[in-house]
Amino acid sequence: MLGQTDLPVNSLLLPSSLLHGLNFGSIRATTCVYKGKWIYEVLISSQGLMQIGWCTLNCRFNQEEGVGDTPDSYAYDGNRVRKWNVTTTNYGKSWAAGDIVSCLIDLDEGTIAFCLNGISLGTAFDNITRGAGMAYFPAISLSFKESVAFNFGSRPLRYPLLEGYCPLQDPPVADLVKAHKLLGYLKNVIHIGIDVTEGKLVEKDTSMWQLQGEPTVLITLAHIFNYFSPLLCKVYLVEDVLMTFLLSILEQGGAVEAHPLIQQLLDLMWLLMEEYEVHECLKQLLTSLLRAYRFSPIIPDLGLQIHYLRLTIAVLKHEKSRKYLLSNVLFDVLRSVVFFYIKSPLRVEEAGLQELIPTTWWPNRFTKEGKESKEVKEESAEERLRRRAYERGCQRLKKRIEVVEGLQVQILKLLLNNKDRGGGEASRYIFLNKFRKFLQENASNRGNLTVLCPPEYMVCFLHRLIAALRFFWDGHKAKTPATVSSEEAYVPPQLFYNGKVDYFDLQRLGGLLSHLKKTLKDDLAAKANVVIDPAELQAVTMDDLDEDEESATSAAQRPSATLAIGGALARPGWLSSPTLGRANRFLSTAAVSLMNPRRPLGALEKIKVRTLSVEQRTEEDIEGSHGNEGLLLGKPPEEPDQPITENSLLEVLDGIIMMYNLSVHQQLGKMVGVSDDVNEYAMALKDTEEKISRCPKRRRDIHEELLKSQKVFSEKLNHLSRRLAWINVTIYSKEKMQDVYWLLQVCIRTIEHGDRTGSLFAFMPEFYLSVAMNSYSALKNYFSPVNSMEELPGYEETLMRLAAILAKHFADSRIVGTDIRDSLMQALASYVCYPHSLRAVERIPEEQRISMMKNLLAPYEQRPWAQTNWILVRLWRGCGFGYRYTRLPHLLKTKPEDASLPSLQKPCPSTLLQRHMADLLSSDRDLAPSFLNSVLNQLNWAFSEFIGMIQEIQQAAERLERNFVDSRQLKVCATCFDLSVSLLRVLEMTITLAPEIFLDWNRPSSELLLRRLAQLLNQVLNRVTAERNLFDRVVNLRLPGLESVDHYPILVAVTGILVRLLRGPAPRATAVLLADPCFQLRSIQYLLGHAEPSALAATAPATDKRHFSLHTCKCQPCAGPCAMLTTGHGCDGQSGAAPPTSEEDLCPICYAHPISAIFRPCSHKSCKACINQHLMNNKDCFFCKATITGVDDFTKPASS
């Protein structure tokens, strides 16, 4: 399907054979040629799958076959670099967004050729079918969401015509001649002045020409424009005549301000042309400038881009023209964000980067073990020279790109001007409304696909907007010293609930806005003096929010209700638009009355607060006046009285943060792929060079092939290193990193201010927390190693403040969204993986640390617990039994060189947080049992699921007809295994830090917890240690995806628990383990390498796999504590507890333990373990269902 672009498709192109909604649609033009030489241009807006060329009327296309796939159709595909005519072969060069493809057909010679950016790609097809009835139409086939624009001649072709070729549409020759003559007359008037004193004509300096009201000149100009004005409404003439003339004025060099002639000419146009003529002329002029900027080839000095940006600045400097373009063209007709984009060259040789960066270099990093590795390798003298030469080339490139970026910032400074109030509203407030609408279109994803701004444009727009914003912010600070500087910028919390800024249907931390307005209306009244109309609250129900339109009755009643409370305006019709979210509709219909700050709630004052659409807002609604605080209405008492800055700049800042959340972060992650490619090719080149050095001299054939490979890798690295230099300058430079860091600090301060408002914090949009987490991730992962986050000012303090936010809000009851809560948990889990960020967590106030650990130790039921468990595991790794590895030892033994195997960060345990955990578990007698019972429950579930899955995997693997296991099933199975191991590690951590929870039986829950733990440990050991069992068979299959499933991780975790339980005199723990019915001495012997000889003999012929034994593992000694079990330590040498002499003495529930408890008041009996576990969830008796009021110890009386 052909998507529209900001450059309208030529009218000659009609969807005569368009297949709507398909993945590969085709379009044929309505004009054909049958003799002669013809050409048309295609402007590539996206670089996806497209086939462009010519076809006949007889060609029939479908969703599988397009232009070039049928006889008598011919196409060029720059995405795959091929040409198509039923069959396909290599042809041409790869294209990129911003390129122009010229399609040529010579029906006299029977050939078809193509050009890319004016450079011929050679003849693609010859001997094409010609003759009677054969005519060729321009045609294209393209994938869904791809977009192009055609130029058949309605505009001047971008590149000069080849000799003999004509565009499909003839240029307006007569109008061109007339326009050039009139332009010549205009130039003569500008060049020549009248010397009144001497009464003769004299030549004047055109650059300083001004319209001074001379009657003769005015009359002459009026006559010229009488004929010139209608011509300036035509696209071809604006681009070929007017734009060329204006560009020639700036070619003299110097700053744009040095050429006031353009301003004078625009004054003439507004004076002597009809208003509709000026509007059309300016629209076509900006469209031509945008097209020329976007589709200009990249040359070393970026001269073309600079040329067009300078003219754009000159036009926008004219106040009346700027306001018209802002109001009607820049965001409505054009994708004006293109002006702030610097495209990346796909072909570095054409961009001149070889001359700019003659020497290439790439970092010698050949490991993927995390980006925080600080290993410094010796650099040879040759490498040092290459690196310095490469860096000098990068600096030259940076200086040239900075010129373009400076011009782009100048454009935004003009658009953000708030001093040009002559003739209407200032430019900044027009820009604000258009900018908000732009954000809405991109946030809702409901607009035309091609209206949405591409992420690569967003990145550049964000950085230019930050530069312009900080320029005005610091300028205001210089004029008003009492305000906040941009270094301390933040968004005040009242913007999130006073209805002055539209957040569309974006989710708030506390849920839907309508719900928050109803549930927090009292808090709004008490803290922010915001009163919601009760009639509105009653009318807006969830059912009402689903309706698109209100009934006529409710619409008629609405104004009286709103005016009674505060004089708010009735809802305009535009609010019924389906493009607005349900939550925003409530805010737009709510009548809000605001009283003076910090006054007690009393009689309502009739202060009219208009709830207006974005288009209806004025400067007064934003900045406020005469006691009206504008965007800052409803300031909570927690907010300081210090003014921040101009209100309009606060809304721009809010929009920048939203923009980063929409697509900038994803694009930053995407562009890292080029750096990864450089590393991969560098590894391949190094490996090839090592092979060349080892290659025997007699094997010349191998040596030659290796040399060819070396040449290919070197050429690819040269290309990628130059392209990477461009990307590092435009996206990952130090200045861009500082912009992202500034956004992170803004978000942190905004969250801190919002948190102080208590319950009103729920009104904050979720994207503020998301941007805080994502910007930190980008700084840490995307900008290194070019720039290091540690070099940023205030790095340590920023880490600590972000850590405090994550620690507090991951379990904040004011945050209800599942996705944002999961994101906070994942961010905290990532934070504790790295030493720097973990130390930041340890530096937050002690009260916050203890609160975080208490939230982590909350019961696992009814909440996402896997990430919580992972955080606790990370705090423990490096302290556990055999738990100091960075990669699983059994994986290193099998495939030590496989880079795709899961790698872990180096252990960085936190003894401080462990101590907090130990204190909480020891001091809070209710917290420990509830937490441990939930851990034991989840362990039971995870390990049971794992066993069930490996049974299914084993059955599938044994089938003769289908030896295939679903990869998703394998992934889930491995996840359950990893969860089981991590839960065991948390139990080991708990037993180590607070052993009294299990071993001090003065605690009411200790016996039950120890028995449950023993039961689960024995189940795990029995499943894993049995010879020729299910676990062994699945592990020996070595299925891809199950690499982490092995004896080592789970048995070492179980052994760690046993060691902690049995170390020292622990007869009670030993007795409980031995008394469990599932206990098998064979499992302990297996751990120590004392397996049964018969079992070993049976498995020996099958594999050479060594029997697992803790004696062979390089971990802490464990034979001593485990020997307690083999010798029956503390149990008089018995291998298990002595069974009761009579079946009547066994617990009637489990038949494993003797009766030891009697229930009140029903006097039924069981063992303590059964009744204690039962009473955790149910208070009714097992047998009679009576309510149990107490449990007493039971001892059987001695029999005679």
List strands and helices in order, with pairings:
Elements: E1 24-28, E2 37-44, E3 50-55, E4 73-77, E5 82-85, E6 87-90, E7 100-106, E8 111-116, E9 119-126, E10 137-143, E11 148-151, E12 166-167, H1 173-191, E13 192-195, E14 200-203, H2 215-231, H3 235-250, H4 261-272, H5 275-294, H6 303-316, H7 319-328, H8 353-356, H9 381-415, H10 427-444, H11 455-479, H12 513-519, H13 521-528, E15 530-532, H14 534-539, H15 542-545, H16 552-565, H17 582-589, E16 592-594, H18 619-623, H19 647-694, H20 700-730, H21 734-755, H22 767-781, H23 795-809, H24 818-831, H25 835-843, H26 846-856, H27 866-876, H28 889-894, H29 911-923, H30 927-958, H31 967-993, H32 996-999, H33 1006-1025, H34 1030-1037, H35 1047-1062, H36 1067-1075, H37 1081-1087, H38 1093-1099, H39 1119-1127, E17 1157-1160, E18 1165-1166, H40 1168-1175, E19 1190-1193
Helix pairs in contact: 1-2, 1-3, 3-5, 5-6, 6-9, 7-10, 9-11, 9-20, 10-19, 11-19, 12-17, 19-20, 19-22, 21-22, 21-23, 23-24, 23-25, 24-27, 26-29, 27-31, 30-31, 30-33, 30-34, 31-35, 33-37, 33-40
